[in-house]
Amino acid sequence: MYKVSLLTRDGATIAFDAEPSDTLLDAAERASIYLPSSCREGGCGACRVSRESGDVELMAYSSVALSEDERMAGDILLCRAQPRSDLALRAPFDEAAVGFAPVPKRRATLVAIEPVGSGTLRLQLQYKDDPTFGRAAQFTAGQFIELTLPDGSSKRSYSLANAPNWDGTLELFIRLQPHGAFSDYLRDRAAIGDTLLVRGPQGQFTLDEASAAPRWFVVGGTGLAPALSMLRQMGEFADPRSCRLFFGVNKVDELFALDAIDSLKAALPQLVVTLCVWKPEKEWREFTGTPVEALAQALLTAPERPDIYVCGPPALIAAAEEAGRSAGVPHDRIFSEKFTAA
Ligand code: FES
Predict the structure, then answer these.
(1) For the chain, which domains are there?
(2) 149 C-alpha to center of ligand 1: Å?
(3) How far is CA 170 from the centre of its chain?
(4) Mean pLDDT of all residues in 216-226
(5) Which end of the chain has less Cβ packing within 10 Å, N or C?
(6) Residue 80 Cα to ligand 1 middle (Å)
(7) CA nearest 263: which of 223, 226, 236, 294?
(8) At what angle do helices 314-326 and 291-301 cross, to 10 degrees?
(9) Mind telling me which InterPro entries this protein's record contains (predicted)?
C-alpha cells in the first residue's frame, strides 16, 4: 500500500492510500474522493495531473489525453497510473472540483432526436423523477454527463447545451462518428421513449464567476454545446459583461443551432457572434477560416484581455492557447474542454 498526496491549485492537500494494482482514480474513489475524470480509459485527458515525486506505471493511453511532451514533463493520467512508490502529485484544478460523494446516477427518457446540421444530431432527454434528486436538472453551465446505452454496452460523455432547470430537461448536440458505438445506436436504433442511464453532472469547464474580464468563447463543431449552456445561463441572469462567440465548422452545411444563437442575442444584446467556416463552398458573408484565426484577429484590436473559453478537438485547443498566449492572455485565463471522437 502506498501513500498518495495531491496538492490542488488552491493549496489544499488531498491524501489517500493506493495498492499497486489500483489505478489512482480507483484508489481515490475507494476513499470517497472523486477526482475530475471523464472517459476513465486514457482517452480524454480530464484526469491529468503532474507528478512531483514518486513512481507510477502507466497503462495504455491515447496521446490525445497525454502528449509525449506532457509525459516527459512528469504528467500522468489518474485513470491509467498505478503506484510504484509513495507519490506527491499536483493538480491543475481547485479543491472545489473534487467531489466527496459519488457522481449521481439517474435515468432519463429520450424525448426528441433530430438532425440539425450535416452529421450532427440534437437530443433532448427528460430526467425521470428520482427519490433523491427529484426531477430538476441541477448542474453548473458548461458541465457534461456520461450516457450509457439502454443495453449497457457502451458509455459516452457529452456536454450539456442548455442551462440548469427545474423540469429536468437535458439538451445535447452529438456529432455522428462513422464507427462509434454510440453513434451507431443513435443512427440505427434510438427511439423516443428509450431510457438511458445518466452519470453526472461532471467536469470543471465552467464560468469563472470571480473574474470581471470579457468572456470569449472559441468553439469548433459540437464544442458549441457547453458555450451555449454558459451563454444561456448568462442570458437568464441578464449578465451585462461583454462576451463574444467564435463558432467554427468545416463547411456551411455543418452549421447548427443558429436559431438558438439568435435567441441568445436577444437575451444578451452585447453578444458578438462570429460564424467561421473553414472551407465555404458557396457564397459566404461571414468569416472564412477557423475560429482560432478569427480569435487571433479579434485579439489584435481588443481593448482588454478577455478570459477565453475553448471547446473542441485537441488541435483547436492547442491553437487557441497559442493564439491567446501570443496576444498576452495569461495561461490561467484560458479555460478548455477537449472533445475526442468516439
Ligand atoms: S478520465 Fe483519464 S484520460 Fe479520460
Answers:
(1) 2-97 (3.10.20.30), 105-202 (2.40.30.10), 215-338 (3.40.50.80)
(2) 20
(3) 15
(4) 97
(5) N
(6) 8
(7) 236
(8) 10
(9) 2Fe-2S_ferredoxin-like_sf, 2Fe-2S_ferredoxin-type, 2Fe2S_fd_BS, Beta-grasp_dom_sf, Cbr1-like_FAD-bd_dom, FAD-bd_FR_type, FNR_nucleotide-bd, MRET
Residues within 6 Å of ligand 1 by CB: 37-40, 42-47, 65, 77, 79
48 CA to centre of ligand 1 in angstroms: 7
Cα–Cα dist 17/31, whole Å: 8
pLDDT single digits (tens) 68-103: 999 999 999 999 999 999 999 999 888 888 989 888
This prediction has a pTM of 0.88
Supply φ then ψ for residue 53, to 5 degrees. -155, 160
- At position 196, the amino acid (one-letter code) is L
Rg (CA), the chain: 20
In what order do the strands lie in the sheet containing 2-7?
13-18, 2-7, 87-90, 48-53, 75-77
Q: Which residue's entry shows cell 424525448?
A: 111
Q: How far is CA 47 from CA 43, 251, 338, in A?
A: 10, 33, 12
DSSP per residue, 2-25: EEEEEE-TTS-EEEEEE-TTS-HH
CA angle 150, 61, 56 (to 5 degrees): 120
Question: Which secondary structure element, helix H or strand E, spans residue 266, and what is its range?
Answer: helix 258-267
Q: How far is the CA of 108 from the centre of ligand 1 (A)?
A: 24
Is the pLDDT at 227 greater than 90, yes or no? yes
Could you tell me if 5 and 87 are in contact, meaning their C-beta atoms sit under 8 angstroms apart? yes
CB 250 within 8 A of CB 257: no
How far apart, in whole angstroms, are the C-alpha atoms of residue 44 and residue 199? Answer: 17
Question: What type of residue sits at position 8?
Answer: T
- For residue range 188-204, list pLDDT tens digits in order: 999 999 999 999 998 88
Residue nearest (by alpha carbon) to ligand 1 atom 3: 42
